[in-house]
């Protein structure tokens, strides 16, 4: 599925953090003297072999110089301890503005810029997300389910039913929590709700409390993406650009301020991708060291891989938040298999495909078993609840005193025969039956909804989701116009998403025609979070599900920004023009975010301002 890419072409950084290397080299004058006896004359450098390459050379094109295999396996990082020298020359740019820093401080800042830059961007995104987090003072959209489920999990270990007027009591001027212990039927695993409940335990059962942990994960995902982009593109500047763009994406922003599960899915999915990226670098560094003593790359084992195990835990937590994590498991297993096959081939192994498939065969059961273990552990509260009818979690008593047969249908597929399953513990049989009913609910969910949308329209932001809306008149709730509007609209920053369409096309070109593994990794992340929804187009689905692949959409735009800036050996004029274009794109996206910010935060604005932001009738 995923083509092994980037192993023949040089794996070079995007070129932002390196000095320019343009200019013409000064060649020595040719020596026309005959060679000394017994000494061969130096051979001329080989020119382009193909006709097409010779034509391109006539226009100044020069094929990139391939680095050594060890450098291709693990390209150097742009900065950091052990990479940046202890003394760094002063910045000419700062000197031009008359800014002079002490040499030790400047060197320290350069050495730790790989952390300082991402942390600064994450701080910026975090302030945006926590500012006014408790507004609106309401259970918006699906918070009506998850905030209450989270509260119940932390008090009895399973989800419970609530009275019809529970929402009004919780957000009243003198709030109360009408908690009951009778079990409720729910259709999503518990990890996301356990996390939401942490904030409720810390700050109470009110909007700031149930949104707190989601805002924390949203902020941490900005830091993660900045570090991931830095490692992926070997550029601290591009890493900070990626974090900044994620900070100002409207959908990520709104989901970071709402107690829904989908941003938590995104967080664990991104964490799994980061762990796989670390595993890739670690494994290739091991291969590079082995090549020094055992060339050929024919060894069977690539050693202990703790980051791959960490990725499996993160994938398990993704699945234990929403079942869409199962597609993440498959996509990231294929991605890791492609990386291993490419590493074997680059190391010079004769049987690189066979050895790479062996690595993939070992990886799949490891990833699957760890993910299943994490998933089952997430149901601990349900397992520990009573199996006495009416006293435990929903369906906990289903298998008690019931003879068991294997399921007649497994995920909608009729099995050819059934066999006795009474030997399986009652709790596991009850959980399996519960999951069968959950699966039936999900695949048959076709009730029409005002804000449902088709995945074909997601990248174009065809139909956003209104989480909260109020239209007070003059003098009501602080309205100073004839009519006002307050809305929390789940929609991405339009310029970022529309630039993302072009960026995905660019990544497809880089992956398919230039064999750039980085572009393939980005496309894999987008596919894992996006393509599965095309199988459920008749189901009731929403645009906010797309938040799972927003970080990878941002990575695609960041790669496009790097392409605009240009490689380090480009001419000065090319770099100036490209950098200006890239800066204008980033600034336009930030302006677009600020323009729509009142719709992301539920700010009171005149109705005329609200209408001005409804660019399409489908947004209303």
Automatic annotation (TrEMBL):
It is found in: Cell membrane; Endomembrane system. InterPro entries: ArnT-like_N, PMT-like, PMT_4TMC. Residues 35-44 have a biased composition (Low complexity). Protein O-mannosyltransferase that catalyzes the transfer of a single mannose residue from a polyprenol phospho-mannosyl lipidic donor to the hydroxyl group of selected serine and threonine residues in acceptor proteins. Its EC number is 2.4.1.-. The keyword Nucleotidyltransferase does not apply. Keywords: Cell membrane, Glycosyltransferase, Membrane, Transferase, Transmembrane, Transmembrane helix. Signal peptide: none annotated. This is Polyprenol-phosphate-mannose--protein mannosyltransferase. It is a multi-pass membrane protein. Pfam families: PMT (PF02366), PMT_4TMC (PF16192). Residues 1-20 have a biased composition (Basic and acidic residues). It is an enzyme of class 2 (transferase). Belongs to the glycosyltransferase 39 family. Residues 428-619 form the Protein O-mannosyl-transferase C-terminal four TM domain. Residues 121-377 form the ArnT-like N-terminal domain.
